[in-house]
Amino acid sequence: MNIASTDIAAEGALGIGLAVVGLVLVALLIGAFALGVRSKRREPPRPRPEEQPRLPAEGAVHEIREHREPDEVPRGDERLSPHQMPGGGNVSSRGSSFKGRRRWDEGRSGSFGSGGSG
3-state class of 46 per DSSP? Predict the structure, then answer.
């Protein structure tokens, strides 16, 4: 037995194996590309310029800043479930008479912790 011929045969088998793996990967990539093209063709077409959304006749809608006062939670002896709350559990609110901007006061809660002295 010649060790050199065994090494050459092993390298040849390894080279053939790598070539087969490479061909399989290329085939998978081509198949994925074909599948993507096929699924893209099934999508509805893009909207035409005349089908694009337009601004309302009265113009753009702007942000409204206002203070809202929440409704009080009904007091009772039993715990209420969300479906028993007024408004079906959705928080309802009414406009506030306070029109100023709320400011942070010294000694009150801030953005970190309780706002205490530490």
Answer: coil
Q: Where are the alpha helices (DSSP H) in 1-118?
A: 3-42
Structure tokens at 111: 């953005």
Whether this model's pTM surpasses 0.90: no
Q: What amino acid is encoded at 13 in this protein?
A: A
82-103 per-position pLDDT tens digit: 777 766 656 666 777 776 666 6
What is the spatial distance between Cα 84 and Cα 29, in angstroms, rounded to a whole number?
A: 57
Environment class of residue 85 by beta-carbon count within 10 Å: exposed (0-12), middle (13-18) or buried (19+)?
middle
| Token couple for 29 | 């990539």
Percent of the chain surpassing pLDDT 90: 24
Query: Distance between CA atoms of 21 and 27, rounded to whole angstroms?
Result: 10
Question: What is the band of 111 on the pLDDT scale with cuts at 50, 70, 90?
Answer: low
Q: Given its phi and psi angles, is residue 34 left (phi above 0), alpha (psi -120 to 50 degrees) or beta?
A: alpha
